[in-house]
Amino acid sequence: MPLAPTYFRQRSRTFPVPFVTTSGRTTRGQWRSRGGRRAKMGWRPVDRAQKEITVTLELPLPYLYRTADPAVSSPWLLVLMHGIGSNEQDLFGLAPSVPPQFHVLSLRAPNVLGPASYAWFMFGVRPGGERAIDEVQEAASRELAELAVEAAGRQLAVPADRVVVGGFSQGGIMSLTLLLTRPQLLQAALVMHSRLLPEVLPMVASPGELRGRRLWVSHGTADTVIPLANARDIRERVAPWPIELSYAEFPGGHEIRPAELSAAMDWLRALTQDSAERED
User: Fold this and answer.
1) Tens digit of pLDDT for each residue in 244-253?
2) Structural domain includes residue 167
3) What is the pLDDT of residue 56?
4) Which residue has the higher pLDDT, 255 or 34?
5) What range defines the domain where residue 93 resides?
6) Nearest 5°: CA angle at 200, between 194 and 202?
7) Side-chain half-sphere of 13: how many Cα atoms within 13 Å?
8) Torsion-angle region of residue 94: left (phi > 0), alpha (psi -120 to 50) or beta?
């Protein structure tokens, strides 16, 4: 019988100190996920007053959190999952670029690889080149991610139709899996430089449950870690399902360059605008 998960309680400021600049100076760069290296990207100035807002969440995974703009009456929630060999700090570096309508929650995977290095599941490569995942680890991580998404939405009073999960590389795999297997927990998934696990296909929800869900898929044309063919496979697999797909390819490898980040953030912003128009 599996053990009940440990719940983590943290008081998190809107932008924890290592990830924010309060000066007017802005730098630009590109975001990479390489075995736990810290993200590099452009920062946006943040009002010091915003940093005083704190929220306590109880979740089954360690996390970093940034609150939505308090002036937003109907906030959204973006839950981020990092790639293999990284940690919750990595994708949290994207928080300054995320539209202010979103709470931003960055989760840490449960399987330890080394200092500050974690994985959602381990995998190996068969002689024919196919990847074989640790299905037990993947299932356990998926359950913890589901619990975290559900608990965060409940504690922040954000309904499922305003929840988005997103990830890069292995974190994108997890996000896509959640959208396809537990669509009742969320509205959309943001999937960057990832692939669809064939092991997940038997668990895909019914067309009725998937209807109305949205999916962003982007990839680098020169990605050698997870080749571009994997993104195109997602596009083909999703085509028969009633999911609204936004698909884009960008120059570059296994990294998120400014153009891709900007396009993905525009997609998130459009989600909130479409929702607001429907409510009106």
Assistant:
1) 999 999 999 9
2) yes
3) 85
4) 255
5) 8-279
6) 150
7) 13
8) alpha
Strand, coil or helix: what is 268?
helix
What are the two backbone dihedrals, phi and then psi, of residue 54, each rounded to the nearest 5 degrees? Answer: -125, 150
The residue among 238, 23, 18, 42 whose CA lies nearest residue 106 is 18
Look at residue 3 and tell me if it is in a domain.
Answer: no
State the pLDDT at residue 116.
95
Question: DSSP of 38-106, one letter per residue?
Answer: PP-----B--GGGGG-EEEEEESS-EEEEPPPTT-SS-EEEEEEPPTTB-HHHHHTTGGGS-TTEEEEE
Helices 135-155 and 170-181: crossing angle, nearest 10°? 70
Report the number of distinct structural domains present in the chain: 1
Bridge-based pairing of strands 102-107 and 63-66 is antiparallel
CATH of the domain at 212: 3.40.50.1820
pTM: 0.84
Range in 54-58, 143-147, 254-258, 276-280 with the lowest mean pLDDT: 276-280
What is residue 55's predicted lDDT score, i.e. its pLDDT?
75
